[in-house]
Write a structure and sequence with these properties.
Elements: H1 10-21, E1 28-35, E2 40-48, H2 49-53, H3 58-71, E3 74-82, H4 95-112, E4 116-120, E5 124-127, E6 141-142, H5 150-157, H6 166-170, H7 177-200, H8 204-225, H9 236-246, H10 249-258, H11 264-272, H12 277-291, H13 301-317, H14 324-337, H15 340-353, H16 358-368, H17 374-383
Parallel strand pairs: 3-4
Antiparallel strand pairs: 1-2, 1-3, 4-5, 5-6
Helix pairs in contact: 1-5, 3-4, 7-8, 7-9, 8-9, 8-10, 8-13, 9-13, 10-11, 10-12, 13-14, 14-15, 14-16, 15-16
């Protein structure tokens, strides 16, 4: 997400977190990077409370989160704990949550100073360390306070929405059975046409790939026209053709290149190139636009929105086991926007479909290394 948010108090910050994540967290710890010099919100990292509280692995989870925030340019941080437990009550009921907080505070102390901790429960929110009943009553401040904030109004006007849970936010709608069968039949036809084109050789394969990229452009155009009018309603035959087209590495790379501004000419060349070094160069150019802080570009929200709409429609219309290309591209888009949770979910599904899919394995390496998108690392460097 490219919206610039500055921390203007805990109420605004807590209102922003669900919009940033795309869902309302539960049983979670969320660590928020505040960058210099004016407290601009950077990385927002969520983890399960159980993982952070684990006596053996929890401290390492905390250190990893803190290292990601430091790489993001954080000068201080805020920890938000989402739980049904009252942390201000001592004893066993809050032991797990207290351990999670302690692990984070110990990891952050030498790098980010004292960690401000807020607790959001089912009925209210409060500062963990505030003992002033006038400021933080026993039941917490009412959650309704978080529903009427400037940042909330801004996010709604920007078209952001909050799903009721993490599972809801990650779900991809599945096309109804009759339409899905039409998409599967179309995919089989285009896959057979590709085999014929490869057998003929010459320009036949290049024409098939160019047709696949044209199908992508047509689908994106439909998504753009229908933006904000409900379901995209892309034709099932078009979705089936895209499923087959994305199995071609040159077409997939062309689509990947089209995500970055100013690469349309390169995308067109990649789509018609024969497999080989040219295709690898196309992939490298596209990845550099996302990864390299020297040339990395921030995502264009409109481009990402349309691309995500089309790719999710392809996944929802396709046959299980055929969706590694579309899911990997969705993972890349989510990572490029800084949504590691969504990226990990899409990547897991891609590797379930094809455990050896090379681009998915590359993206997984970036996620496991905690590598931030190039534009984010460039911003972090400028903030230092």
């Amino acid at each position: 997400m490219t919206t610039t948010i500055r921390a203007r108090g805990p109420r605004e910050l807590l209102a922003y977190v669900p919009f940033r994540l795309g869902y309302r967290p539960a049983d979670s710890a969320v660590l928020i990077s505040l960058r210099a010099p004016r407290g601009r919100v950077g990385l927002v990292a969520r983890t399960d409370l159980a993982d952070l509280a684990d006596l053996e692995h929890g401290p390492q989870v905390a250190r990893t989160l803190v290292s990601h925030l430091c790489a993001d340019g954080a000068r201080r941080a805020v920890l938000v704990v989402y739980t049904d437990v009252d942390l201000r009550v001592g004893g066993a009921p809050a032991a797990r949550e207290r351990a999670a907080v302690e692990h984070c505070r110990e990891a952050a102390e030498d790098f980010l100073g004292d960690l401000e901790v807020w607790v959001v429960g089912p009925r209210g929110y409060s500062s963990l360390d505030c003992l002033d009943e006038a400021c933080c009553p026993a039941a917490g401040r009412p959650l309704t306070d978080l529903e009427s904030t400037q940042v909330g109004a801004h996010m709604v006007l920007a078209g952001a929405a909050v799903a009721p849970s993490r599972a809801h936010s990650f779900a991809i709608p599945v096309l109804e059975p009759a339409l899905r069968r039409r998409a599967v039949r179309a995919s089989a036809r285009w896959r057979a046409d590709r085999e014929k084109a490869l057998a003929v050789g010459g320009d036949a394969a290049a024409r098939w790939r160019a047709g696949g990229l044209e199908a992508w452009r047509s689908a994106v155009a439909v998504a753009e026209r229908r933006e904000g009018v409900g379901e995209t309603a892309l034709p099932p035959a078009l979705l089936g053709r895209l499923e087959a087209a994305l199995e071609s590495i040159p077409v997939r790379d062309a689509v990947l290149l089209s995500f970055a501004a100013g690469t349309e000419d390169v995308a067109r060349l990649t789509a018609t190139a024969v497999p080989g070094p040219q295709v690898e160069a196309g992939t490298a150019s596209a990845i550099a636009a996302m990864v390299d802080p020297a040339v990395g570009l921030p995502p264009d929200p409109d481009v990402v929105r349309s691309a995500r709409t089309v790719l999710e429609a392809v996944v929802g219309a396709g046959r299980t086991g055929r969706q590694a290309p579309a899911l990997t591209l969705l993972a890349l888009l989510a990572w490029w926007e800084g949504d590691g949770g969504l990226a990990a979910d899409r990547l897991r599904r891609a590797l379930d479909a094809d455990p050896a899919y090379r681009l998915a394995l590359l993206v997984r390496s970036a996620l496991e290394a905690g590598l931030a998108p190039g534009w984010a690392r460039a911003e972090a460097g400028a903030a230092r």
